[in-house]
Design brief:
This protein has 7 helices and 10 strands. By secondary structure, the protein is an alpha+beta fold.
């Protein structure tokens, strides 16, 4: 085997060194990620410049890049908290969050890659305890789920306001009460519903009775007015009109004018 020329040895050495340097210096940031640059010989974490975006980057081999996911992420929490009367309630909630992109360097410097466990989880647990403690189990079970969801979001967001983390939403997925309390609440709700239905039937029956009374009163008033208006003169005129119509009838009959009571016609048929 022929020996390599002396000039080739330095070239190969330089080439190997370059390959090592490039491999140590090349950084690829994936989709939905960003990189925080750490300068070993220049004040450490870079906080006064935007983070490294997606794609290929070359950095000095003595520096480091810490990659963070900057997409929206989800935290799912099962929490046991106490209601206003001291009963233990289980809350299943989700929090949607993401790091503040422009503050990624500050986030890494102050909280590090474990910021989820350091600030987000304690914040949402503290907010849940505070909010649920204002309500009774009945309120949590029936009508206040949306309210506690909004309040937990508002309180958690306030806690995280200066922690370089953006909270997008808090969703309360389930509220679990002790079985005895749940059954008592359901029984109470059924009784209230039955009571409302009974009251509705009473009101309906009362309105129907009132309607019948009004109709009867109207008929009585109409009859009284009609009776008062039927004078002897009007009855005689009506009797005369009836007599004239009977006289035009082809049936044989005898009509005696003035033969009836109060001068009304007396009608005698064939029989």
């Amino acid at each position: 085997m022929e020996k390599l020329p002396k000039i080739a040895l330095p070239f190969i050495f330089i080439l190997v060194v370059l390959v090592i340097i490039i491999s140590k210096s090349a950084v690829t940031i994936g989709s939905g990620e960003a990189g925080v640059l750490y300068k070993t010989f220049d004040n450490g974490v870079v906080t006064d410049a935007p983070p490294l975006g997606e794609g290929f980057h070359l950095v000095a081999p003595w520096n480091k890049v810490i990659v963070y996911e900057v997409r929206q992420q989800e935290l799912f929490e099962k929490m046991k908290v106490l209601s206003s009367n001291g009963l233990e309630i289980q809350i299943d909630a989700s929090a949607w969050y993401e790091p503040v992109y422009d503050q990624l360097g500050n986030l890494h410097q102050s909280l590090g890659e474990g910021y989820l466990q350091r600030v987000i989880q304690p914040a949402i647990r503290s907010a849940a305890r505070s909010v649920v403690g204002r309500y009774t189990p009945e309120q949590l079970y029936s009508s206040k789920r949306d309210a506690i969801q909004d309040e937990i979001f508002a309180e958690t967001k306030k806690i995280l306001e200066k922690q370089f983390v953006q909270l997008n939403e808090v969703l309360v997925r389930d509220v679990t009460l002790p079985n005895t309390i749940k059954e008592a609440i359901e029984r109470k709700l059924r009784q209230e519903q039955e009571s409302l239905e009974y009251e509705f039937r009473l009101v309906t029956a009362a309105k129907e009775a009132e309607k019948v009374i009004i109709e009867a009163q109207g008929k009585a008033d109409a009859n009284r007015i009609l009776s008062a208006s039927l004078t002897d003169k009007i009855l005689q005129d009506k009797g005369i009109d009836a007599t004239l119509k009977l006289s035009e009838s082809p049936n044989s009959k005898v009509v005696i004018v003035g033969g009836g009571d109060k001068g009304l016609p007396l009608i005698l048929g064939n029989n």
